[in-house]
Amino acid sequence: MYVRISCPIIIGTFVYICMSIASCSFVAVRIPFKSLSQRLESFPQTAPIESSAQIRWSKRGVPFVEASSNRDGFFLLGATHAHLRLGQMELLKRLASGRISELIGPFAQDLDHTIRILDLGRNSMQVMSKMNEETREILSSFVAGINWYQKSLQSLPPEFEIFQMKREEWTEQDVILVTRLAGVDLSWMFYFGFLSIEGRDLRDSLWERFLREDDDSERIDQLIPSQSEEIKHMSGLIRAFSRSGSNALAISGQRTLHGSALIASDPHLGTTVPNFWLLAGLRTPDFRVVGMMIPGTPFFALGRNEDIAWGGTNLRAISTHLYQVSEEKLSVREETIRTRWWFDTTRIVRESSHGPIISDSPFFDNLSETIALNWVGHEAISDEISSFLSANRARTFHEFMSSFESYGVSGQNMLYGDSEGHIGHLLAYQQPVLQEAEMTSQLIKNPDNIVESYRSAAELPHLFDPVSGYLASANNRVFRTNIPISFSYANASRALRMSEIFESKTSISIEDLKALQQDVASIKSVQMRNFLLQFVGELESKQIYENPNAAAMYEALKNWDGLYSTDSRGALAFHLLLSHMVPELLQRLFPNESEHSIMLKGDLWYADLKEQLKRQEFIVEFSKMLTKSLLKMGKKFTKYESWGNFHQYRIQYPLGRIPVIGSRFRFDNFAAPGSNNTLYKSAHSFSAKPHFVSYGAQARFISDLSSLDENYFVLLGGQDGWLKAENFLDQLPLWKSGEYMQLPLSTRGIEQVTEICLSIEPSPSL
Description:
By secondary structure, the chain is α+β, with helices and mostly antiparallel strands. The chain has a domain at 523-646. The strands form seven sheets. It has an eleven-stranded mixed β-sheet. Strands 5, 6, 22, 27, 28, 29 and 30 form a seven-stranded antiparallel β-sheet that branches. Helix 19 (548-558) crosses helix 20 (569-589) and helix 20 crosses helix 23. The relative contact order is 0.15.
């Protein structure tokens, strides 16, 4: 039994006290500027390694670790992670453990309780025991490097003082836990949204409607019904950390100038800083790789070695099933949630044979059923670390595909290219197969319909060297299978745009891929604009032109080329039209608010509108609705003038979201190109208010396999997680101008980009 803080007077008083304390705590922390050389002064020059090693640092703070053994290499790689991102890593570990209340107070207790129920790291010991010896040694070396470095620090990262964190030794289980956080199942967003619906009949009917369309919305959080603020925050965390969207491309040698493959990948995630990704290079006897890593994990999720390169997008795979279970035979444990500025609380967590009882989360007070969550990530078959370490050394597509035999969560479309010109596409995923597989898409399963087996990457569909000469993935459906892989795919607009560009060219270059990653065209939006404006009749047009603001908006809309560039007036006009018209249309056609988000799925509202417009009486009504939207939004259009004045990036640390005191942690605002369904992804909702992008493109990678050195990367922000460090935001100018930095893989190339070379000598062993 527990008490939730609910009394308004208590809350108001407590918020005032907490904000006062927080203001002192956050503002009092002095964070000095540190150059790259000043930052590296804290890196010890002797370490418990077997032989001399080097860490070469580029001027952007990218480390290239060179060691004569895998043990030494991964030890120093762990140390560089701690050097660059220890504060971020500690926050990720505490988030994944359900310990946020320790940092920000009692308002996170319900979130922590829910995460404790999910118990992301519950099988970490089993995963460790099933790892091959080499992976265990690499993981242990990586963890040892983290701990060695943080023990050597005289001055801890600012997060330790801001959040009053204490230094904690890392374990192999912590690394697996962070890996699990990055692998959370996107279907949880759907499940949590639907479980929060009042009324089982309404919930089931909306679920059926949700499944009806194959072509889904680009905004995955618009696919779920109206939710509580708590569910929205939980869904936001899942979206921010789960690699929930992306573009990935593989171009075969037959379509390139040099006969080798090209690969490009730009993941879509949360846009706060530090960036979700860390760039690094590694050279040991078995590894020669450069790419993008998740801070606190020892593998390269995106990147290349001497022979192959890989990119990926989220598969939106079904890795979780919900079961209605009996209250009998549940195991019970108590979890103590330590809480900053408040009393600690004890919460109950219950488990069934099907998994944890997610309905016990305080976010689902409306539920009368007892619902268990069965997740592939809770099974010992799911070992992503071994899979990626193997993939990082693969030399052929067969080796690459075999590497993902043990990969479980989150499901990914993995695209492959090699120096011989071959390309491939596989599904990295352990698909849970139910006894009654035809019930896979059912929202809540019968407890007898258990998972009886799993299908790995080798058993799922794949593509190799297609006739087209290219492979493109944008979270869209590629394969049709007898058992559904996903509840909801992204609509095909981004993938079709890539295909359109490729089909117009006989050969593809690095420069083409750079342009493609920054493409802001939306054919779909132009088609929708053309359809809508045909219902502005002569009478309505006259009304519009009598209003100068509405007339300017109407003209911009008619002349729009479909580009969401920052200076586009047409993009702003189209967005404002929809932001006013669509909510009114949904209210008119679907009085139940729970239906509104569902109707945004795959633009179901648009399909329903077309159906309604077959009735003459509705045409008249809709024409008036369009005119009203133009008249209402005209003044706002005149005020903001262009898309970039309305749609912007705000580069901020997570604390930047706090009113007043958060301003210290906001670093830059600038116009954001792109939209929901453009290749340059910068997500937004149907809002008539100016907004900041919180999710979208935030890292880019391109590689030409004809050369070890033709590898290009850029992060939204920078490499260094130390606030105010030279490399904290130094890649922002590159991002804004559409530039990249080159990260070579050859010895000479690495030497040429080296700004500082640290020689690390052996010291007494651990």
